[in-house]
Design goal:
alpha/beta, Rossmann fold, 2 domains, 9 helices, 34% helix, globular
Amino acid sequence: MTTTPTRTQPLRIGILGCANIAKQFARDVQPSAAVQIVAVASRDADKAAAFAAAQGIARHHASYEALLADPEVDAVYIPLPNSLHAEWAVKAAEAGKHVLCEKPLALGRAEAQTMFDAARRHHVMLLEAYPWWFQPQTGDMLALLQQGAIGELRSVQASFGFTVGNPQTNIRLKPELGGGALLDAGSYTLSLIRLVMGSAPERVLADASWSDSGVDISLVATLHFADGRRAQLSCAMDAANHRRATLVGSQGTMETEYLNHTSDGAGHPWGYLPSQLRLRRGIANSIPFEEIRSPSGSGFRFCAEAFAKVVAEQDFDAIARAAAASLDIAATLEAIARSAREGRAVAV
């Protein structure tokens, strides 16, 4: 029998897996008063023990199932390969655990819907973890848009890319694990487009280059919206690191790097950097940009604390809004991938 976890403060999180991103998550969340990481699991008992010792986590489990059975765990964080997100999110929901799942949530809309259905059926919350969504800078960007700082939003261009390391073993290059530039970097660009546009596109047209393993190594896509607006995204795993978005309105322009993790300046111990957000109010190129300053910090911590807040407040309305965005993102990623493979426009 499944029971909803008791609402506690702090929210007690268990981590499924010991990937590098899980280490970063644990490190960044550790100082929080709202969230406590209480357990970690791996299919390798020694790896789980080593991870727990290094991160100061009280308990470790030699299987994911054992962590899901742990009564001291309220919620789980899932940093597993993309192909495993749906399976373990559903199992976590069935065990009565809230779920904070790494992006991309799923490999397609139907899979994402299955995950949300399981969460709803078992009265737990499921949230897709885009760290940049929870940055104060993102809140400031949305507030400016809602205030009409650039007039009516007409178009968006968003890019993100990097050079993938250790190509022989990197899961990003393994098609069976849900690899590829689109699902990795492209999910970030699309998350920005969906956030500011407020809906899914009507149709997409994409073009990709392919790696030897068969995944897309770089991709560009144009997104057409029902009201005539357009967006363009580009993503790559064979380029220098770059991350930027331009939002063009009828009366102004906004530019942002929308970084996951931010700092107030150089010299951050983990290499976090300031994230630019700048605003031009008006249509002339002679108008200078304003630099918008926002509080900085780890997106992992901001995300985990936001998740803890909605769990504590049982704010299912907030989760439903996030779920609608996640379902749109999953459907659009699926359509973009199909368009790239088939060389034609695809309806979303």
